[in-house]
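Many introductory courses stop at the sequence. We go one step further.
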Amino acid sequence: MKEQAEKAFKEMLEISTDLDKAVLYSGEEAVVSNFPDGLQATMVKKAKELSAAGAVRAASMGSAPLTQMVVESAGGTVFLVHEPQDDGLGMLATAKKDSRIGLVFYDLKTCIRDAQEVDEEPIDEEPIDEGPEADAGAEVEA
């Protein structure tokens, strides 16, 4: 998954001009990030804290579990997207002020989805021999 995650992360950063820094995480571990190495664990911890705060708020409102959050400030925007199950993939990202929120969420979710895709090689299937009966039934007179 690491290789797929790195590819998806790189593509996301190339496409999304609003994003500055991001960390894709699973559980307590950074899978891939462009934050400095010394900040990656801290950013995953902050993502977990934001997620927990959002979960408490959603529960108090009787709402569905939180899967995304945006925090806007004078200096920029923080985005959080995570899968609802425990230890699912999540992403915390920072973006410039006045970012296109819908597009950023789309890019983050696409990155998570693409990071999970398994590269499956196509199976070469041999044609099935249906015997002489199949050939006889296929003839049609014009």
